[in-house]
Amino acid sequence: QKEVEQNSGPLSVPEGAIASLNCTYSDRGSQSFFWYRQYSGKSPELIMSIYSNGDKEDGRFTAQLNKASQYVSLLIRDSQPSDSATYLCAVNALGAGNMLTFGGGTRLMVKP
Amino acid sequence: DTEVTQTPKHLVMGMTNKKSLKCEQHMGHRAMYWYKQKAKKPPELMFVYSYEKLSINESVPSRFSPECPNSSLLNLHLHALQPEDSALYLCASSQGGTGGYNSPLHFGNGTRLTVT
User: For B26-55, how does the pLDDT look when each residue is reduced to its tens digit (9 = 90+)?
Assistant: First the structure.
């Protein structure tokens, strides 16, 4: 069974700090990796996609992928209270079409 | 703002009612999805349409009936639901059909369904 694991949190960081969110996956055939942000009562919003090993930066967000370790992470620099949300890791395997496997999500709390 | 539009935003229905959820996208995406999400849980896949054909049904009870009238529209018909079906129902779309693995999902704002 394909699994995507995240620490449920809450992960609490002070405003201005770096928040580090982690995700591990079990299927070595996984090819595409996505991070979604979901505010309470709202729908998931895509914030990062990453497909190859290494780092990908977009503004305050950096996604890191290590396929050998089956590990993907999201770093949020200069965390703001508005970043407080649940972050969902989603993974897609080659041959799975566009079926994503979601992790359980990590709740991030950024304290002023 | 999302490019996937869902209506209604909120729906309260009795167990004997029949209602429909609607979803529309104009991004030219060829795959559309229905997800169900309970509180503090990740989205749970229900159905996938690829090129207007139902390609995946994740063993969803028959009281949920999907319909894809065209490539831009997706409906979910509801009948004889149970209180435990109360959840946030999310529509999503992606660029490729089921053969494309690089396309992220784009979610609508969801319909908050309460079954009384």
Answer: 999 999 999 999 999 999 999 999 889 998
